[in-house]
């Protein structure tokens, strides 16, 4: 990202060991800042202080915890709090819409969600023997945020990439709720 012109990139992880390893590995890249922090409580940062939040596997790790739905809900509330109005949350996950969209649509969150599905490199390599295949395709979700009933997921190991634009007005954030309470449809 720094090579592409991004100026201020903040990297967080709950593990101080990971933070120190990454800080050492990328010490020559001055645009990178590393902080040990729990994504469920990022009170260090002020409201609406980020244009974009990139999540590459954090949600998946949260969903493996004992308090999975509650922890993920707290994480999303923090992400929404940190994003500026119209900010973008990029969620790269193995979680299909039936598992992730209810979390994204928890009470108080307002997102415009675009879903892209990217097959694994091995699947793309196997398929390249025939006609060229797109690396990634956008999939239009149903009104209730799910894959269309006739959609066939070609590679069951695909990555799901959710591009979530924050629609909430300035100051409006997600509540920390149980995802099963209520969900709004966008």
- Structural class, by secondary structure, is alpha/beta
Summarize the main sheet: 5 strands, mixed
Tell me the span between the first and last alpha carbons: 30 Å
Rg of Cα set: 17 Å
Question: What are the low-pLDDT stretches, counting only 5+ consecutive residues below 50?
Answer: 179-186
Assembly annotation: single chain
Principal-axes shape call: globular
CATH superfamily of the domain at 38-166: Vaccinia Virus protein VP39
Give the proportion of residues in helices. 10-25%
CATH topology of the domain at 38-166, anyone?
Rossmann fold
Number of strands: 7
Query: So, CATH architecture of the domain at 38-166?
Result: 3-Layer(aba) Sandwich
Number of helices, where a helix is a run of at least 4 consecutive DSSP H or I residues: 5
Strand content: 25-35%
User: Please, what is the average pLDDT?
Assistant: 86
User: What is the H/E string?
Assistant: EHEEHHEHEHEE
CATH class wording of the domain at 38-166: Alpha Beta
Physical arrangement of strands within the biggest beta sheet: 3-4-7-5-6
Describe this structure in words.
The protein is 24% helix and 25% strand. It has 186 residues and is of the alpha/beta class. It has a domain at 38-166: Rossmann fold (3-Layer(aba) Sandwich), CATH 3.40.50.
């Amino acid at each position: 990202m720094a090579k592409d012109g991004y100026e201020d990139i903040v990297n967080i992880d709950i593990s101080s060991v990971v933070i120190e390893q990454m800080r050492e590995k990328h010490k020559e890249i001055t645009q990178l800042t590393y902080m040990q922090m729990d994504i469920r409580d990022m009170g260090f940062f002020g409201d609406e202080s980020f244009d974009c939040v990139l999540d590459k596997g954090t949600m998946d790790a949260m969903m493996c915890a004992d308090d999975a739905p509650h922890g993920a809900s707290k994480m999303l509330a923090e992400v929404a709090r940190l994003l500026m109005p119209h900010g973008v949350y990029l969620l790269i996950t193995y979680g299909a819409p039936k598992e992730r969209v209810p979390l994204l649509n928890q009470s108080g969150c307002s997102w415009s969600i675009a879903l892209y599905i990217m097959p694994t490199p091995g699947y793309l390599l196997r398929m390249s023997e025939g006609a060229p295949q797109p690396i990634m395709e956008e999939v239009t979700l149903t009104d209730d945020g799910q894959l269309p009933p006739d959609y066939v997921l070609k590679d069951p190991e695909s990555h799901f990439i959710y591009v979530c634009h924050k629609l909430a007005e300035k100051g409006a954030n997600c509540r920390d709720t149980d995802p099963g309470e209520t969900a709004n449809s966008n």
